[in-house]
Amino acid sequence: MTDSPYRIQGATGEWEVVIGLEVHAQITSQSKLFSGAATAFGAEPNSQVSLVDAAMPGMLPVPNGECIRQAVRTGLALDAQINRWSRFDRKNYFYADLPQGYQISQLYHPLVGEGSLLIEPEDAAPKTIGIERIHVEQDAGKLMHDQHPTRSYVDLNRSGVALMEIVSRPDMRSPAEAGAYVKKLRSILRYVGSCDGNMEQGSMRADVNVSVRKPGGELGTRTETKNVNSVRFVMAAIEHEAKRQVAVIEDGGTIIQETRLFDPDKGVTRSMRSKEDAHDYRYFPDPDLLPLELDEAFLADALASLPELPDAKRARYEGELGLSAYNADVLTADVETARWFEAMLAEGAPAKAGANWLISELFGALNRLGKTIGESPVSPRQAAELVALVGDGTLSGSLAKQVFELMLETGQDAGVIVEERGLKQTSDTGAIEAEIARVIAANPDKVADYKGGKDKLFGFFVGQTMRAMGGKANPGVVNDLLKKALE
Amino acid sequence: MSVDLATVRKIASLARIATSDAEAEALLPELNNILGWIEQLAQVDTTGVEPLAAVIPNHLRLREDKVTDGGIRDAVLANAPQAEHGFFAVPKVIE
Amino acid sequence: MTNLTDLGVADIRDGVAAGTFSARDVATAFNAAVEQGRALNAWLVETPDHALVAADAADAARASGDLKPLSGVPLGIKDLFCTKGVETTAASGMLKGFVPPYESTVSGKLLNAGAGMLGKLNMDQFAMGSSNETSAFGNVVSPWKRNDGGNAALAPGGSSGGSSAAVSARMAPGATGTDTGGSIRQPAAFTGISGIKPTYGRCSRWGTIAFASSLDQAGPMARDVRDCAILLEAMSGFDAKDATSLDLPVPAWEKGLSADLKGKRVGVPKEYRVDGMPPEIEALWQQGIAYMKDAGAEIVEVSLPHTKYALPTYYIIAPAEASSNLARYDGVRYGLRDLPDGANLQEMYAATRADGFGAEVKRRIMVGTYVLSAGFYDAYFTKAQKVRALIVRDFEHAFTQCDVLLTPTAPSAAFGLGEKSDDPLAMYLNDVFTVPSSLAGLPAMSVPGGLDTQGLPLGLQIIGRALDEQGVLNAGLAIEERAGFTARPGQWW
Ligand SMILES: [Mg+2]
Ligand SMILES: [Zn+2]
């Protein structure tokens, strides 16, 4: 870990980068924020659109309680202030993906106020990033530009889907910090269950605000790069944008506050033509909706429903379960891994051995198979059984690997495979001694070398004996008997 | 505070209402007349007064998270000036 | 036999139930009146078949003993209410040809209660106007004429001018209206009929084309107070589809009617004595006060100090909300689209909206856009919402001293078509007495109080506490019984 700050090297010296992120996270819900239409991904165009979503004359919004609850839970998970009194405002602008001519959002009185998020970027010190606010708002529809030479097509399936906009303070100073922030935020959202964090499907995307300044100097003018949809792109967009700004300033130009787009193919940001005109959104309280007032019972329920969060879980894995810092970190980074691990423990797997097995064996196998832990062909119960068979000496490490491969292929339980294929480890000293005698007899020169001081050859004898035993010999017993035989 | 012709054009543009020069000039005195009249509100002492949030005391009801709507594409598109392949069609937008 | 079109809602309901006449005969008579009254231009769409189908259902229901509260009653529906399968335009070129695939909650409740629909009523475009002259489909002509021997065409009031004209001309026994700043009460006053705007939230706004969401309320317009009570009962009620709907049971207003005001205090707000008010309006007001005393009420003078600021407050808030509510009319999903050659999306919006909206609608959108724009929001909109809070407080304070308020409905009788249409401000001032109660969301009603020297009707307004429609209706009934208003326009059409 180093504390050397991230700097852009310009012709006039070093520049510091100042970064703030606005993350739009789709709230997990069956129906939309203000209508009863479904939110499922990938439906036929305009099939998940109500008259409200299409802004037909006289249609009115009615808020979805679950979306409010999930945003409150998210706020609580980020140690944020929950505002008992909030309200919805209209953000007015004209665009083909915005049927009402306004987005229902929250400007003046957001649901969630100040909070914070601890990030631990690789190769840098942990840091607390301020959360300025979280507000709830509607998503827009989708415009398709490639279906017709002179027309764009409008699909309103996403129109009205609930989003949380999570706004950070401009506290980040490097692409790595921004990357760590997005990862950690996604981890927490997934723990809480308020957003699936799926950036490819657009259920989480970031608006990246970047400015540059001489270290410690006055804040520069920022640009906002919209809808960046992966951690890698967030980092690349910042790097490009910061360098671009330094070049502009050092060339005697000025940065204009503008909206930009990131082009992932070229790795560059560019000005967004369609959003060029200075916006005047004319925010005002939505007169179709009343103030949103939350009572103590609603907040208490939301709080009680929160799961153990990744930082707390990691501390417990280290403290109570005695896992290494590394293992605790790996197992808690993603909620599905932690759930899987805890299911294994519930099936009786010992913590340390279970953790090691999961991280080395299961992750390795899933990697090879291109599957997520949720798609694992082996269940936590099966895994617990396998680890137990190693623990009680039934299986050696190498036998366990063989059994695991067979489990992945057949889906059978470890015990069944061991029984049917006779893969049980043996501690039968008679059989092992017989094989040792044979190995010693076949290698007189090596025995002489060993006795002459070449200690390293001990491994050779272990390997020969194990091979002769078909891998089933208990390695501890083999060690003991070999030592005796070679004395 | 009175508006000038440039402001009238800016408002018309924000409101997406195409306005000819003659129309803008005709609107100018009308708007200034109305705005001058509503500015008498400045006389009212509103120190310590919260802006009205709800006309009749009432608070926001929250609905259950259930799918109760959608699946009515034909009704949604029925009045569209131009609908193709299940989409609304608009002049091509360049982003 | 009486002329069936002379009957009101209660008479028709009771006559059909008693078998005095058939619902079909009633519908047929009104359909004919609608056809004969085309010179008034009160209807944008005539739906005689709809009225007949409902009438036949009513006659069948009578035979089987399944009568509903409004079985056999044909009604006019203001064109602001979306009606399933029937063109709904809000009297704007913007929505020409728009056929809603849905029925507004209010019109749906009336139809479910057994009413039939005679047609869709003309109005000021998007309910913006006080004379019905902003309709894209020609103004409505009031059935009333001055008694000066001249033939001047008069305004039926607005925005519910088609409703007021249709009811006063006996083309419908009752009609729906909507009231944002007086659009039920002022046209009722101009045409010698009754109309009530209930407490904000009593009638669902779902499916009613929005003008200004925090002010819009539906209500009935009919020939007397009882008919208003009957229709309001059918129109009101909680609707989960409107977040501002009041979750309260609907009182039995018709049953609760009583013209006995003993023990009631009637407030007379001194600030409603405005500069330049015609002596005839003042005289009418005094007459109303006398009626109230006669009905047993005690009269108290009260003060509503912010009255003079109500109109400017309204003309900030209503246009602001409207500028946003009407942003959806963009030529993409329904209604007019104007796509000049080579125009891009934003140019299409601007052309469509320039073409589709009338001058008054554009004027209000412009004002609303301006007062919300960067740098002006606090000075205009926030300030207006603060003054609005003070106006609400004024009423709350007054209602500690009285049960209802009595005022004139409008500062004049019906004016001539074209008399005020060149001067927006003069037109706005016509709503001076109706706007304050709209800003406060209070129930308010206009009942005919008498005729002026030109033989034109004048209305008295009663304003009640929130949710006290009963108190308003009862005070209205007390006036109605004493005023004995029977004047009606001569049938010149
Ligand atoms: Mg943003
Ligand atoms: Zn946003």
Overview of this protein structure:
The complex is a heterotrimer of chains A (487), B (95) and C (493). Chain A is an alpha+beta fold. Helices cover 39% and strands 18% of the residues of chain A. Chain A contains 15 helices and 16 strands. In chain A, strands 1, 2, 6, 7, 10, 11, 12, 13 and 14 form a nine-stranded mixed beta sheet that branches. Chain A has a three-stranded antiparallel beta sheet with strand order 5-4-15, with no helix packed on it. A two-stranded antiparallel ribbon of chain A has the order 3-16. In chain A, helix 7 packs across helix 9 (380-391), helix 9 (380-391) packs antiparallel against helix 10 and helix 12 packs across helix 14. The longest helix of chain A has 20 residues, at 231-250. The model of chain A has no long low-confidence stretch (mean pLDDT 93). Chain B has 95 residues and is mainly α. Chain B has a domain at 5-42: Histone, subunit A, CATH 1.10.20. Chain B contains three helices and two strands. Chain B has helices spanning 5-14, 21-38, 73-77, and strands at residues 83-84, 87-91. A two-stranded antiparallel sheet of chain B has the order 1-2. In chain B, strand 1 (83-84) and strand 2 form a beta hairpin. The mean pLDDT of chain B is 95. Chain C has helices at 9-18, 23-36, 48-64, 105-112, 161-168, 185-191, 225-235, 279-294, 310-325, 345-356, 359-372, 377-398, 424-428, 435-439, 469-483; strands spanning 43-46, 74-78, 116-121, 174-179, 194-197, 217-222, 265-269, 298-302, 404-408, 444-451, 457-464. Chain C is globular, with a radius of gyration of 21 Å. The mean pLDDT of chain C is 97. In chain C, helix 8 links the parallel strand 7 (265-269) and strand 8 (298-302). Chains B and C meet through helix 1, helix 2 and strand 2 of B and helix 9, helix 10, helix 11 and helix 12 of C. The structure holds magnesium ion and zinc ion. Zinc ion (ZN) is lined by residues 24, 137, 165 of chain A.
Labels describing this entry:
heterotrimer; A: 487 residues; alpha+beta; Arc Repressor Mutant, subunit A; 3 domains; nine-stranded mixed beta sheet; three-stranded antiparallel beta sheet; 16 strands; 39% helix; elongated; C: 493 residues; alpha/beta; Amidase signature (AS) enzymes; eight-stranded mixed beta sheet; three-stranded mixed beta sheet; 15 helices; 11 strands; 37% helix; globular; binds magnesium ion; binds zinc ion
